[in-house]
Amino acid sequence: MNPEELLYAETHEWVHVADGIATIGITDFAAEQLTDLVYLDLPAVGRSLSVGEEFGEVESVKAVSTIYSPVDGEVVEINSKLPDNLETLGSDAFGEGWMIRVKLSSEDCLSKLHDHATYQKQCDG
Amino acid sequence: MRLLKDLDAPRDGATNMAVDQAILQCTGQTNVPTLRLYGWSKPTLSLGYFQQAASKDEHFESVWHLNKTDASLRQPPAMVRRATGGGAIVHHHELTYSLCIPSQRSSLGPSETIYRTVHQCIIDSLASQNVKAQRFADTGKPEPLAEAFLCFERRTREDLIVSGYKVVGSAQRRFKEAILQHGSILLETSPLAPSLPGINALCGCAVEQPQLVDALVASISQAFQFTAEAGALSAAEIRLTEEIRRQKFSASDWNLRR
To answer: What is the mean pLDDT of residues B59-67?
Structure first.
């Protein structure tokens, strides 16, 4: 995925949409902030998500952080290899580090997401 | 800063964890930090969020085999799974604290600043009782390679050490616009975790808990530039606590999820 073509939530999730399916992960900035990752929980396929709803949790040394859904829809696929290969979040956050795929219930939620430039400003700020 | 001292009315494990979570969830809306100091109504094992529940069995089997004359050790203690990570903790003879502070929604991962600041406050508070504690990072010792079942047998940089033993460990959890840090100050050895000496055994002293609490409140207030005011849980937090306790911390599908 080209980061410049993705959409972003202020909570550091990235989104790529194609044919009504959103592929979602967390940014390399987020992975760096989380520091040494030790565990990751992802939702079950079939689960319905709403914008802002927690869909996963990640443990880094000394802290558990929540991952929030940037879209409304149903989980249709999860990256089941990722929890056993957390280093991927640091090395390829926008590629093999994808977390879930969601079938969108509508594309209205996408208008609330940021483009790359806006997300970068948030991180720089 | 709201100060909650729950030491005279200790709660069970599920309720303690539910109270911490209820405060965390409300802090983003109230924008008021809360420092809570509390105890446990009975010895309780808390598992880290990602730990395997079955791993406790081996620990308590070995504890029983070490001291079969103590019938109280035959049954494992009550158990609750925390929402924070790390290893298992036997909450028995300790002072437990939680600090919830408002933060930005976009903040991620651990807050090293809060860790270090709170742990420095604990170092200073213990020093007022003539107990010399230091950060593990300052001991010059390497971190153990294997990950132990018990939190207090693990070592990370900001853990606090007395005479080579870990006596303070903490963990954090973020929720929207707030961050929770809670931790245990191990005062005495528990027969349920005999490998972990408490501060009193290590120093040959008897830490005065009320004075330790007062010193800790004063130190945290100064370090964070908060003004501590005695308070109580709000009606909303009480309702939320009961809901969280029922749906999560007392539910087997939460506690045995792994």
So the answer is: 77
State how far the Cα of B91 lies from the Cα of B99, in Å rounded to an integer. 18
Query: Which residue, A18, A15, A30, is CA-closest to A115?
Result: A15
Rounded CA separation A102/A112 (Å): 17
C-beta atoms of B171 and A62 within 8 A: yes
**How many whole angstroms separate alpha carbon A117 and alpha carbon A6?**
10
Quickly state the pLDDT bin for B187 (edges 50, 70, 90). very high
| Residue B163, min C-alpha distance to chain A (Å) | 23
Q: Give B35's contacts (C-beta < 8 A, 6+ positions apart).
A: B1, B2, B3, B4, B97, B98, B99, B217, B220, B226, B228
Name residue, tokens 């005279």.
Answer: B8
Please check whether residue A61 touches B, CB under 8 A.
yes
- With contact defined as beta carbons under 8 Å apart, do B184 and B56 qualify? no
| Confidence (pTM) | 0.90
Angstrom distance (rounded) from CA B92 to CA B96: 10
* Complex ipTM over 0.85: no
Cα-based distances in Å from A64 to A22, A91, A119, B141 = 25, 21, 23, 26
The closest CB to that of A63, out of B105, B106, B173, belongs to B173
Q: Which two tokens mark B100?
A: 């919830």
One-letter amino acid of B138: D
Contact between B41 and B10 (Cβ < 8 Å):
yes
Q: Which residue has the tokens 């869909």?
A: A55
